[in-house]
Structure formats: C-alpha cells, structure tokens
Amino acid sequence: MTASPTPAVILYTFAPEPGSKVAGTVQVKTAPSGVTLTATVGGLVPGHSYIVDADPLPCEFLVGGPSQAFPKAFRADASGRATVVWTVPNGMAGSASVQALSSRGTYVVLACADLS
Of 27, 43, 51, 54, which cross-links 71 as Cys (Cβ 3.0–4.6 Å)? Predict the structure, then answer.
C-alpha cells in the first residue's frame, strides 16, 4: 500500500494597505487537487460585505486596481471578523487579498499577502 502525500500547509500574514485596519492571516494548503486557502481577518466593518481573492500575481500588481481572479464573497460578523475558505487551481495562488466595494463601485484592496 502506498501512503498518500501529506498536503503542505503554510501560514502567511496579510499586510494592511495604507489607511486600512484590516489584518489577519491566510493559511495555504496545497494538494494535488488544488490549493485550499483559509483567510482569518479582523478590522472589518461589522455586517459589511467583502471578498477575498487569490490571484496568480503578487500584491504589488494589485495596488493600482485589483483583479478578481478567484474571488469568494463573505460578510463580516458582528465583531468585524471573518474566516473564509475557498479553493483555487494549483499555480493560481500568487497572492491573497481582502477587498471591499468602494463608493465609486470599484473594489479596493484593504490587505494583501504574497504567497511565495
């Protein structure tokens, strides 16, 4: 009998963008079937909607305007925290970000973590 390989698990820290109080971590679990990300964040507005996103690009490319390569919508709880789990294809998680919809109707990055 052949043992299954154990998935690699690594923890990264979100870096808040200037003026943002959003912080937390993102756990990356790599398996042959894909990459499972678990974001644990705080500093959110209670009850507001956000997205987390995995992108093949590093954080520095998201500053001028984020993309939503592999987004997952969520709502902050009453304490302004959330834990979100989503899966992306292997090789597609260069960064993870927390984003909010601005008053202009565009998403802005509140915090980002390079995953390499």
Answer: 51
Q: Residue 64: which pLDDT band, with cuts at 50, 70 and 90?
A: low
Answer yes or no: is pLDDT of 74 > 70.
yes
The owner of tokens 């984003």 is 99
SS3 letters across 34-97? EEEEEEEEECCCCCCEEEEEEECCCHHHCCCCCCCCEEEEEECCCCCCEEEEEEECCCCCCEEE
1-10 LR contacts (CB < 8 Å, sep 24+): 5/32, 7/31, 10/115
Q: Exposure pattern of 18-40 as b/e (b: 16+ CB <10 Å)?
A: eebebbbebbbebeeebbbbbbb
